[in-house]
Specification:
Elements (H helix, E strand, L loop, with lengths): L4 E6 L5 E2 L15 E6 L28 E2 L4 H7 L3 E2 L3 E5 L8 H10 L5 E5 L4 H11 L6 E5 L3 H11 L3 E5 L16 H18 L2 E6 L12 H5 L2 E6 L6 E9 L7 E7 L2 E4 L3 H7 L8 E8 L2 E13 L7 E4 L3 H15 L6 E7 L11 H13 L7 E3 L2 E2 L5 E2 L4 H10 L4 E5 H4 L10 E5 L3 H13 L5
Parallel strand pairs: 6-10, 6-11, 7-8, 7-9, 9-10, 17-18, 19-22, 22-23
Antiparallel strand pairs: 1-2, 1-3, 4-5, 11-12, 12-13, 13-14, 15-16, 16-18, 20-21
C-alpha cells in the first residue's frame, strides 16, 4: 500500500511546497513551513455514496433561523441582528485588544436563556473565574471547560448539548489523529471543520476566537475564513481605549456595519453614539480641522479630520495619513495643486482622522480637501460647518448617497452650515431655518465660500 503523501505548508499564508523551505516565497515568512501528511483515499466506486436527491428550486422552503441577542447592541448590529443558530462566527484581532473579554461578556447574557459552553485552551479555570468576577459575569447555564483536545471537546458537547459554544482560541485545539503541533494549518483546519460539522448537525451556534499573524491576518490557512459564516475583526490600538468591530464576511447580515466599544475597568462598554464622543474632544478655532460624515452601513458617523501642513526641510515633502487611504490623500493633494495652485510640494503634509475611525468612503474627499486648504492657508473653518462630497480629478464635487441621513445627523449634533454636492441639494427635504445648506459644484467654490465668510466676519482669519 502506498504511504501518505508528505507536503509542506506555510502556517502564515497557506502556501504549499513539495519540500521544506526556510523562507516562504509568498508571504516571505521565515521558518513557517510545517510538514503535513496527506493520506490518499482509494477511488470510490460508481455506486451512490449518499441518499441525497436533487429537489426543485421552487419547492424549497425558506429556513427560519433563530437569532439570539448577545446583550450588546453594537455586536448585534454587526452580526445582523444577533447570533444565528447553527452559525459559526470567527473573531480575530491583535493581542490584548479584547478578543477574550468580549466572548466572556456576551456569554453571561446568552446564558440567561440558553445553555452556553465556554472552552478555553489558554487559561485555567481559576484565571477565568478571577476575570469573570472582575467583569461582574455570572450565569446558571454557563459551563466552563479547559481543554485542548478537539475530540474531548466534541465529546463534552455531545453530553452537555449546549446551545452556544465559545472556543478561545481555535489555534490551541488539536487532535491526536494528526502528528502536527497545535496551531498548524492541519490542526486549525480540522478543528474548525469538526466544530462546523457539529454546529450544523446539532443546531448550536459556535463562536471562534482566532489569533492574527504579523501581517494582521488570521493565523492559519486562508480557507478558514471561507469555512465560517461570519468573520469579525477587532480594529484599534491596544494603547487606545476605543475598539471597533467590523465584519468582513457575514452570510446573515451586512458587512458595512461597525460596532464601537470602549475598553474600561469592567470590560468593553458600548458606544451607541460614536459621533458625539469623537466631536466632544474637537478643539475650537484651530486651522486644519474640518468635520465630515461617512456612512457605515445604515449609520452615519461624523468624524473630525485634522491636517497639518508644515514647511519641509527636504527636497520632497513627506506625506502621512492615519485613518485615511494614503494614495487617496496624495490624489487630493495633486488635484489641489493642479486646480488651485496650492504649493503642497514645498511642505510636509499630515492627515489624521480623530477617534481611530478609518474613512474608506469617497464622501470624505470634500472634508479632507477643506482640512488641507485650511492647513496650508491657515484659515480657521467654523466649528459649526461640516462638509461631505466626492472630488473628481477635474476638481468637480460629485453627489453622494444617503444625503438625508447625513444631513439629519449633522443637524442633530448642532451643525448649522452644511456643504454638500450641488446635485444633492435638490434631493433634500426642507431643513430648519437656522441651518444653511450650501451646494458645491467644484473645489474653487470652497475657497470662495471661506473668503466670503471671512468678509462677513463669521470665519476667523
Amino acid at each position: 500500500m502506498k504511504g501518505p503523501k508528505i507536503t509542506f505548508v506555510c502556517r502564515e499564508c497557506g502556501f504549499t511546497s513539495i519540500k521544506w523551505l526556510g523562507k516562504c516565497p509568498d508571504c516571505e515568512s521565515w521558518n513557517s513551513f510545517d510538514e503535513v501528511a496527506i493520506s490518499e483515499k482509494p477511488r470510490a466506486s460508481a455506486s451512490p455514496i449518499s441518499n441525497n436527491k436533487a429537489e426543485k428550486f421552487n419547492e424549497l422552503k425558506l429556513p427560519t433561523y433563530l437569532r439570539s441577542k448577545t446583550g450588546m447592541q453594537e455586536l448585534d448590529r454587526v452580526l445582523g441582528g444577533g447570533l444565528v443558530d447553527s452559525s459559526v462566527v470567527l473573531l480575530s484581532g491583535e493581542p490584548g485588544i479584547g478578543k477574550s473579554t468580549l466572548p466572556l461578556q456576551i456569554s453571561a447574557e446568552l446564558a440567561k436563556n440558553r445553555k452556553v459552553l465556554y472552552v478555553s485552551g489558554e487559561e485555567s479555570k481559576g484565571q477565568i473565574k478571577l476575570r469573570a468576577e472582575r467583569l461582574g459575569i455570572a450565569g446558571e447555564s454557563l459551563y466552563l471547560l479547559t481543554e485542548t483536545d478537539i475530540d474531548a471537546v466534541l465529546s463534552e458537547c455531545e453530553a452537555l448539548k449546549p446551545d452556544v459554544i465559545i472556543i478561545d482560541s481555535i489555534q490551541t485545539l488539536s487532535t491526536m489523529r494528526f502528528s502536527s503541533a497545535p496551531g498548524t494549518i492541519t490542526q486549525v483546519r480540522e478543528g474548525a471543520a469538526s466544530l462546523i460539522g457539529y454546529a450544523k448537525g446539532a443546531g448550536a451556534a459556535v463562536f471562534l476566537v482566532g489569533h492574527v499573524n504579523k501581517e494582521g491576518g488570521i493565523s492559519g490557512p486562508k480557507v478558514l475564513e471561507h469555512m465560517v459564516d461570519a468573520v469579525l475583526y477587532f480594529e484599534g490600538e491596544r494603547t487606545n481605549s476605543y475598539r471597533i468591530i467590523r465584519a468582513i464576511k457575514n452570510r446573515f447580515g451586512s458587512t458595512n456595519e461597525i460596532g464601537v466599544f470602549e475598553m474600561g475597568d469592567k470590560g468593553l462598554v458600548e458606544i451607541p453614539n460614536p459621533s458625539e464622543v469623537v466631536m466632544a474632544e474637537r478643539p475650537k478655532n484651530t486651522s486644519g480641522s474640518c468635520a465630515g460624515c461617512v456612512m457605515q452601513g445604515t449609520r452615519p458617523i461624523i468624524s473630525e479630520i485634522q491636517s497639518l501642513v508644515a514647511k519641509t526641510a527636504y527636497p520632497t515633502g513627506k506625506r502621512t495619513a492615519d485613518g485615511f487611504d494614503h494614495n487617496r490623500m496624495c490624489l487630493l493633494i495633486a488635484v489641489l495643486e493642479k486646480r488651485m495652485g496650492l504649493r503642497f510640494y514645498e511642505n510636509d503634509v499630515y492627515v489624521n482622522v480623530a477617534g481611530g475611525i478609518h474613512l474608506d468612503e469617497p464622501s470624505a474627499d470634500l472634508s479632507i480637501a477643506m482640512a488641507l486648504i485650511s492647513g496650508i492657508t491657515d484659515r480657521v473653518i467654523p466649528d459649526d460647518l461640516i462638509a461631505f462630497g466626492e472630488i473628481g480629478l477635474s476638481g468637480e464635487v460629485r453627489a453622494v448617497s444617503h444625503i438625508e441621513y447625513r444631513v439629519k445627523e449633522a443637524i442633530r449634533l448642532g451643525f448649522t452650515k452644511i456643504l454638500v454636492p450641488k446635485k444633492n441639494v435638490s434631493a433634500m427635504l426642507k431643513v430648519p431655518d437656522n441651518v444653511e445648506l450650501v451646494g458645491i459644484s467644484n473645489i474653487y467654490q470652497v475657497l470662495l465660500h471661506m473668503r466670503q465668510k471671512e468678509k462677513e466676519g463669521n470665519m476667523p482669519t
